[in-house]
Amino acid sequence: MRSWTFSIKTFLPLFANLDGYLLFRPSLIAGASSGIGAETARVLAMRGVHVIMGVRNMSAGSDVKDAIVKEIPSAKVDVMELDLSSFESVRKFASEYNSSGRPLNLLINNAGISGTPFKLSKDNIELHFATNHLGHFLLTNLLLDRMKKTACESKREGRIVNVSSEAHYLFQYPGGIRFDRINDQSGYSKFTAYGQSKLANVLHANELARRLKEEGVDITANSLHPGAIVTNICRHYFGIFNGLLRKVGKLVFKGVEQGAATTCYVALHPKVEGVTGEYFKDCNIGQAGEKGRDAELAKKLWDFSMDMIK
């Protein structure tokens, strides 16, 4: 695939004359109240996609919606409450969405936390793993029948996109996933806990892609690295130095507009049609780390995750 310059100004022309291809693709973005998720919502809405924003903070989500509609009066944007750290919230969201009868063509699993001290979720699971992986895993499972129905009735490929990170191989526990020690505080590192959850995003997409392909369903599943970006997700990492990091980050890191480019590309572009089980970076197919390419580890994580969400 061709490599693109990483600016939303040069990214948007990729979709010139593709409006007919992009219409009637209702899209859910999990985690869209700030950062990459908010920018992804803006770009999708700009291209005529009906965007449903799943957000924990309804006030922040409404602000993003208002900003999008102000810029794009014709935008179709809805905001629904969704806390990925809570199984109850995920189930409530999925139940409301499914009972609404709305179609669903694109699912972008973007929500996430990073760098928090050791903490358990409401379901007593380490917070990074609960929010960044299990919440998305459960959400995807609960919405999958809706996506299958939409793909069948619309005759259009569905796409599931997991926003991961290079942290999936840069920060690893031995073995990749601490299956028997998910909630063990000993040896806990906020960096490695984040890396573990991002590895789970890659493995989840890969195993889901394998299962959907085996089933003959017209839905793809891919993961991606958006790039090194300073967003609200970094707020727990550097404490009093966050302000300085943001100033320096503007010089050396991607902005959210550039960071959202790969997500939008994988979610929308016809050049990615039929591509599944891949790891993208910089609007190209890349290569996940060694653990991220481990098919047996992906199957083990799938079974483990199914047990965790029961």
From TrEMBL:
<dbReference type="InterPro" id="IPR036291">
    <property type="entry name" value="NAD(P)-bd_dom_sf"/>
</dbReference>
<dbReference type="InterPro" id="IPR055280">
    <property type="entry name" value="TIC32"/>
</dbReference>
<comment type="similarity">
    <text>Belongs to the short-chain dehydrogenases/reductases (SDR) family.</text>
</comment>
<protein>
    <recommendedName>
        <fullName>Short-chain dehydrogenase TIC 32, chloroplastic-like</fullName>
    </recommendedName>
</protein>
<dbReference type="InterPro" id="IPR002347">
    <property type="entry name" value="SDR_fam"/>
</dbReference>
<dbReference type="Pfam" id="PF00106">
    <property type="entry name" value="adh_short"/>
</dbReference>
